[in-house]
Specification:
globular, seven-stranded mixed sheet, mainly beta, 11 strands, single chain, four-stranded antiparallel sheet, 114 residues
């Protein structure tokens, strides 16, 4: 069983920054991918950023140049540094781990005020 716990969400003004963290526990394989998705009210869940165990990253076009994903594999932790936040970044952010099957965290709310 795998458990993902996110932290770091909150309320921030436009132009501000937040850092999200997600700690994975349980049966974690050495080869996997971890990432962040978000779901705004009334919209579908969308990919924000993903990072492989080898360090390869991929970002949604809407966050390129503003968000940075990183991981500490020794701690089974993935981070999302979010800079220059915009009101349209407001959403529930979910941590994701893929290793044979997909696991999800419970989500953390990020609200960006204008």
């Amino acid at each position: 069983q795998v458990r993902l716990v996110e932290s770091g969400g909150g309320l921030v003004q436009a132009g501000g920054s937040l850092r999200l963290s997600c700690v994975a526990s349980g049966s974690i394989f050495s080869i996997n991918a971890m990432g962040w998705y978000r779901q705004a009210a009334g919209k579908q869940r969308e990919l924000v950023a993903i990072i492989s165990s080898g360090g390869t990253t991929n970002y949604a076009d809407s966050v390129k140049g503003r968000f940075t994903i990183s991981r500490d594999s020794a701690k089974n932790t993935v981070y999302l540094q979010m800079n220059s936040l915009k009101p349209e970044d407001t959403a529930v952010y979910y941590c994701n781990l893929f290793q044979r099957i997909t696991y999800w965290g419970q989500g953390t709310q990020v609200t960006v005020s204008s």
